[in-house]
Amino acid sequence: MTFDTSGFAAAYRAPLQGKFRTKPEDFLVDEQMDIDMSGEGEHLWLLVRKTGANTDWVSKQLAQVAGVKHKDVGYAGLKDRHAVTTQWFSIQLPGMADPDFSALPDEIEILEQHRHDKKLKRGALSSNKFTLILRSVTGDADEAIQICEQVSQHGIPNYYGLQRFGHNLGNLYKAERWFSGESKPPKQRNQRSLYLSAARSWIFNNVLSERIRQGNWNKRLDGDIFMFEGGNSWFADDGSAELEQRLGEQDIHPTGVMWGRGEIASQNAVQELEATQAALFPVFCAGLEKQGLKQERRALRIKVDGLACEIIDAETLQLSFSLPPGAYATVLLEQLGSFK
Questions:
Q1: DSSP 6
Q2: Looking at the domain assignment, is residue 319 inside a domain?
Q3: Is the pTM of this model over 0.90?
Q4: Same domain, 212 and 294
Q5: 81 and 217 share a domain?
Q6: Active site residues
Q7: What's the domain count of the chain?
């Protein structure tokens, strides 16, 4: 099978073209976390600013300097390599003094350090704050600002970004070969996880794209399952008129299927749509079920907080906004235009 992301529908008309991430300083990401440090304990928490480096590499550098195993370093999530990002790490140091970090590479700068009694776990953040500089911009900037206003009111599609699928969508092809028996199962656990995530995310993106085409990705559809803003719990449509208001206020969001074993939770029109889209990828569906993944849900929409679009000059725009964990800044950019 040939995979192609160009067919995914956009929720907004894209009037701009330009460049982004021409240098790391044009893509700033600040991890937002609301945790009170205990001031004591065997875990040393570090607020790190990294430039042009990926999160896993930074965690390995911290482990090496601290003299601990890589598994003793924790972080909440992976951050872009081609960016300047601040994020928290924790290092488990039982009975050990704080390490000397002066030998760290120049790409890593420690801004704060605190002792705490718990390890930093994946997903333990409230949001990510982005500041993006877009250069060589052509098109109607005023229209882009209007789209930003619409995005603030109605949200954006919660697509998985391209990085989810690997270089040239390679993780999808590797998952397909694995599931079909053309290649051996991946030996490394992280590879297995990458291929499973890619296949599952591809089905979800196709479900979301179809709902955008139908014009109901952020609206109520018969048989919907809803998810609360800022949470992972979900519930079925109870037929109440109140749900319409809560949808409009972005207090709740429609959801799409994350494929796995079991029955699709949605009903009626939504269930039919999801089953139809999933049936386009029988190898993925069978493979995900065989590997023991269970049916889950993911919100179809992201609420974008604090979105601001500023015209710096005739060819330069600055975007600032916050997104929840698991959301992709590149998906927001795609609503405004084509940026390379």
A1: G
A2: no
A3: no
A4: yes
A5: no
A6: 80
A7: 2
Residues 67, 48, 323: CA angle, nearest 5 degrees: 130
How far apart CA 296 and CA 275 sit, in angstroms, is 14
Residue 155 CA, chain-centre distance (Å), reads 15
CB 156 within 8 A of CB 331: yes
**Residue 76: CATH number of its domain:** 3.30.2350.20
The structure tokens listed for 148 are 């930003």
308 lies in some domain: no
Do 103 and 186 fall into the same domain? no
Distance CA 321, CA 311 (A): 15
Q: List CB contacts of 154: < 8 A, sequence separation 6 or more.
A: 218, 250, 301
Tally of helices (H runs) and strands (E runs) in the chain: 8, 16
Span of 33-42, 153-162, 163-172, 301-310 with lowest mean pLDDT: 33-42
Whether 68 and 199 share a structural domain: no
pLDDT in tens, 9-68: 999 977 899 999 999 999 999 999 888 899 999 999 999 999 999 999 999 999 999 999
For the beta carbon of residue 79, count every other beta carbon within 10 angstroms.
Answer: 21
Helix (H) or strand (E) holding 337: strand 337-339
- The answer to whether residue 312 sits within a structural domain is no
d(CA 105, CA 108): 6
Residue 47 structural domain: 35-116
- Token code pair at residue 31: 């991890």
Q: Which of 101, 116, 131 is the last residue of a domain?
A: 116
Note whether 176 and 111 are same-domain residues: no
Q: What is the pLDDT of residues 199-219, one digit of tens each?
A: 999 999 999 999 999 999 999
The residues that bridge with 316 in the sheet, in sequence order, are 313
